[in-house]
Amino acid sequence: MYASGNPIFLDPNYHEQEIFLRSTALPRAISSAQADMSGFFPNLGNGSLPAPSYRGRIPIHTFPVKTDPAFVPSCPNYDIKQQEYIDSMRSEVMRKFGHLIDLIYNKTGLNVTLNSFDPYNIYDLLHIQRDIYHLTVPDWVTPQVMYDLKQFSIWRISTMVGFGSPPSTEIVRFKGEMLKEILQRFEDKLACLQNPQTPDANCSFLGPLKFYAYSSHDTTVCSVLASLGSYPAIPGKD
């Protein structure tokens, strides 16, 4: 699509001036970026190297998780507002999911809190084992338990981005870092194109750049959708 269309957008051969990959520092995100690049540039190895070897020739840029300014920004004010937001819904959530929290503790030993992502992680694991690979799961993992886990997970991710019930515009604003980063790059790129003769260190990078890619996580996508006001359509889809 990008390297073989008409007209060609990217050169079929990789050039560092044209493409930049940004990933979280977790292996699965880096591996996804590498897999994407093997599709973008299938002939990069020229047949001389197996795919895993030549994928490493395309740099993937990361920050340490604790200092990542875009994907995992640190914000004490967000943490405070997030806790207040969860506390405001505690009674209703415990009424709906208290039995599930007790079940998880009795069956797994995990002491689930409303702030944790344990229900999401448990649902993800069981969904992969049960529904995708059709492996045997414990007897307590019934269709109703899976449904409840899914709803609990949706609630937790929704509150993370400010789309609980009721929504929180404060939380939504706090989760707009990724969208802000993307829009700022749009503006910087446009400024470079409109003023090609103006010396600017930033334009030496952005000027020839054609493709800036992110490799991240589902929660990052949720944050961007929340910033755009489109988030509720996703968990309600099925």
Automatic annotation (TrEMBL):
Belongs to the histidine acid phosphatase family. It comes from the Eukaryota. This is acid phosphatase. Signal peptide: none annotated. Keywords: Disulfide bond, Glycoprotein, Hydrolase, Signal. InterPro entries: Acid_Pase_AS (IPR033379), His_Pase_clade-2 (IPR000560), His_PPase_superfam (IPR029033), Histidine_acid_phosphatase (IPR050645). The keyword Cell membrane does not apply. It comes from Mesorhabditis spiculigera. Its EC number is 3.1.3.2. Gene3D superfamilies: Phosphoglycerate mutase-like. It catalyses: a phosphate monoester + H2O = an alcohol + phosphate. GO terms for molecular function: acid phosphatase activity.
